[in-house]
Design brief:
The chain has 266 residues and is mainly beta. The chain has a domain at 11-152 and 170-177 and 245-265. The chain is 10% helix and 33% strand. It is built from three helices and 15 strands. It has helices spanning 138-155, 163-166, 169-172; strands at residues 16-21, 27-32, 36-41, 46-52, 64-69, 78-83, 94-102, 107-115, 129-130, 180-186, 218-223, 228-232, 240-243, 254-257, 262-265. Strands 5, 6, 7, 8, 9, 14 and 15 form a seven-stranded mixed beta sheet that branches. A four-stranded antiparallel beta sheet has the order 1-2-3-4, with no helix packed on it. The protein is globular. 29% of the residues are buried.
C-alpha cells in the first residue's frame, strides 16, 4: 500500500481524458482536453515530449476522447487517437474521426474521416503533418487557449429569435456529431454468426461462427451519431456499420494512399 511512482502531467495542457500503455509497459501516452499528447517514459518517470494532435495544430482546442496502441502497424509505436469534431460549425461534409500517430517521430501516419456527399466528389490529397510541439510555458499555453476560445466564439453562428429561426427544430438542434467516443482494436474478430447478410463482405468462415477479417486487425468505434462501425484495418472496403444505419443510407469505403501519410475515408 505504498506509492511507488508519481508522474504529474503539466496542468496547462488541460485535464487528462485518456491514456494508453504499450505492451512492454515502458511508455505511456496521455491525452488531454485541449488536444495535447504527452509521451512519458514509465520506467524512469520522465516526460519525453508533448505535441498537439492534427486538428489542434490549426490553433483551436479540441478534446481527445480515447487513444489505443495500433496492433498491426508501427511495431508498437503507433497510437490511434479519437478526436473531437467541431461543434461550432454546421458543415459535416468531412469530419476527422481518428488520427494515427507515430509517437517516436511525432508524425501523423493515417487519418480516418467520415464524409457526406457523392462518391465521385474529389477527395482532399493527403499531406505529411508533423505534430506541433506543445507550449512548455504555462503563460503561453493559457494565451493560446484564450485565442482558440475567442476564435471559436467568433466563428459561432448566433441564434436569432425571429419566427423564421425558431420555426424549424433543425435550426436549433444540429445533427449529432460523428465523434468517436469509444473504440477497441484487435487482431481476430470472433463471435456468433451475424443475423443479417450485410456482414457478408467481412467473410464468414464456412462451418464456423466467427467473422473473419483480413488478418491485419480491426477497430470497432462507437460515435455520438449512434453508429457502431467495424473497420477492417487491412482491407478498408470490408468496413461496415454494425448498428445505427438507416435504410436509405448506403455508405461506401475507400482510401487514398500517398507516400506519407495514409489518408482513409468513409
Amino acid at each position: 500500500m505504498r506509492v511507488l511512482q508519481t508522474m504529474e502531467n503539466p496542468r496547462h495542457y488541460g485535464p487528462i481524458t485518456c491514456l494508453c500503455v504499450d505492451r512492454k509497459r515502458s511508455w505511456i501516452i496521455v491525452g488531454t482536453s485541449t488536444g495535447v499528447l504527452t509521451l512519458w517514459d514509465r520506467r524512469f518517470g520522465l516526460l519525453l515530449k508533448s505535441w498537439h494532435v492534427g486538428v489542434a495544430s490549426a490553433g483551436r482546442s479540441v478534446r481527445i476522447h480515447q487513444c489505443v496502441v495500433h496492433l498491426s502497424k508501427g511495431r508498437g509505436k503507433w497510437v490511434m487517437v479519437s478526436v473531437e469534431a467541431s461543434k461550432r460549425t454546421t458543415d459535416r461534409s468531412s469530419t476527422t474521426l481518428v488520427e494515427v500517430w507515430d509517437i517516436e517521430k511525432s508524425v501523423l501516419m493515417e487519418t480516418f474521416v467520415t464524409r457526406t456527399g457523392s462518391s465521385s466528389d474529389p477527395i482532399p490529397e493527403p499531406h505529411e503533418l508533423t505534430g506541433v510541439e506543445a507550449d512548455t510555458s504555462p503563460a503561453a499555453a493559457i494565451a493560446a487557449l484564450v485565442r482558440s476560445r475567442q476564435q471559436s466564439a467568433g466563428d459561432a453562428r448566433p441564434l436569432g429569435l425571429s419566427s423564421r429561426s425558431v420555426s424549424s427544430t433543425d435550426d436549433l438542434l444540429p445533427p449529432p456529431a460523428p465523434d468517436v467516443r469509444a473504440l477497441i482494436v484487435g487482431l481476430d474478430f470472433g463471435g456468433h454468426s451475424p443475423p443479417r447478410s450485410d456482414y457478408g463482405e467481412l467473410g464468414v468462415e464456412a462451418g464456423t461462427s466467427s467473422i473473419r477479417t483480413s488478418g491485419r486487425g480491426f477497430m470497432v468505434s462507437g460515435s455520438e451519431d449512434r453508429k457502431m462501425r467495424l473497420w477492417d484495418l487491412g482491407k478498408l472496403e470490408r468496413t461496415t456499420v454494425l448498428s445505427g444505419l438507416s435504410e436509405n443510407e448506403k455508405p461506401s469505403y475507400q482510401y487514398v494512399l500517398a507516400l506519407m501519410p495514409l489518408f482513409k475515408t468513409i
